Protein: Gfo/Idh/MocA family oxidoreductase
Amino acid sequence: MSSNPSAPIQLGIVGVGKIVRDQHLPSIAANADYNLIATASRNGTVDGIQSFTTIDEMIATVPAMNAVSLCMPPQYRYEAAYKALTAGKHVFLEKPPGATLSEVHDLEALAKAKGVSLFASWHSRYAPGVEAAKDFLAATTTKNMHVIWKEDVRHWHPNQDWIWQAGGLGVFDPGINALSIVTHILPRAIFLTGATLEFPENRDAPIAADLHFKDATGVPVHAEFDWRQTGKQSWDIIVETEAGTMRLADGGAKLFVDEELKLAEPEAEYPSLYRRFAEIVKAGTSDVDLAPLRHVADAFMLGKRKFVEAFHD
Amino acid sequence: MSSNPSAPIQLGIVGVGKIVRDQHLPSIAANADYNLIATASRNGTVDGIQSFTTIDEMIATVPAMNAVSLCMPPQYRYEAAYKALTAGKHVFLEKPPGATLSEVHDLEALAKAKGVSLFASWHSRYAPGVEAAKDFLAATTTKNMHVIWKEDVRHWHPNQDWIWQAGGLGVFDPGINALSIVTHILPRAIFLTGATLEFPENRDAPIAADLHFKDATGVPVHAEFDWRQTGKQSWDIIVETEAGTMRLADGGAKLFVDEELKLAEPEAEYPSLYRRFAEIVKAGTSDVDLAPLRHVADAFMLGKRKFVEAFHD
Structure:
């Protein structure tokens, strides 16, 4: 799709739900690089924006639209992305980028063939403390890492059935945010060496996971994901290094070294994601790093399964 | 590692077990491109060949060795491959190439950085009928594919505990052979849309799997893997096409169209693998297609789990 690279991106959104209202819409409205011109959703609409119930109708009716953000559950994302890319639209994928690795691989090839941009977004990588954490670890030697991602699913994902279905990833839906940070800040790649996944006996996705990784030099990384945490919630990454103990806290918002606060800034993940998407569209490139989803797939493949008590919302 | 490209490859083998004795040794002996000069294995040795118990000793003691074949269970392959590539050796990986996708990704990057060849081998792709099947499908339109891979694990994998452990893949150990053929002969990529994996209640790996895929145009592929098959064994791929029904039988050895035999040749998979490895070493390239393992990981991630009766050898 050839277009004036300095003109605003004419954007459509597919799947108008909570994350779109909370994050996407304010970020798009505040960014001069975008005009939101259409939505497609089975139920949701956005005031004042032309709305459709299917992406097919939206593509057919709004030829000026040159990019789409896909925010439906991952099990339904491939088909929409395939249609959008085939029609020559740039595509922004909410996380996780798909229900399978194979489909995202294929989308990447399709985007390349069509000369459009594909963005597999990982919002947590844009948390305020993440780049500072990466810089800190690059300048020292890591001894070990401990990732603690424990939250109350009843509070954060009330009655979201899709998240408990096969392909919905269960506790890996938040856990993949941790993995997106870990794979970004560590200087070397890590590999899973063992895992235990706990499945509620009435669900097809895990409620907890205990993961052991190491890097090529043997540095251990231990990650604990749990959705049964009431009271204090934890989204912490603690790294023992030769320069002290680094703690990236609150999902990446705050950085401590030896418990001294080094950085705390207001969260602005989605505005950063939309800046990044505009950047790759202008540059004519894609940004698809599958490492976080690959680790999740590895955990399902290599992990031991344990059945635990049924979960009811 | 610079060496005379016309000189024979000085090969070491790690993990001397059944597959090495049955397949690797005869193929290497019959190929003038190789000199087998060392083995490393906890228990096995090869008559007349210098033997070690660890790859570290073998690498340190036999500097003339410029390539290794890694034939131990996949859970132990990464560490050996990392050491061999780091030491500048070309690496042949038995299938599956690793216990995780992430580790093979990293090995691929390491091989490139070290300027040596990495071969993720898929022996079933070299079955006699596979290329003819690919040509047949390229010249017609596929309506649907049915993959039936049903064998008796007690006969083919007696008392192989590693195959039942987490990371051993269970029925996907033979099933990945089918997927390596399917992904090679189909003209378009496929993606998993749903799966059921049956785990014996006393094992960490599945004994059966039922997989549904489709390609971007909606062509369905149904795969059934089962390790509980007594009597007649099945390794068949049946494809309905506009040019008739193609059946690739006996693991790729025979090709039928509308039940008329079109091709049946003696099996020579491992000799072909070793020809291919010599070819990429001479060309200075790697051959790492992770599509079969990616589909397996996708099946574990997307699949529903079902517990079935305990399995005892």
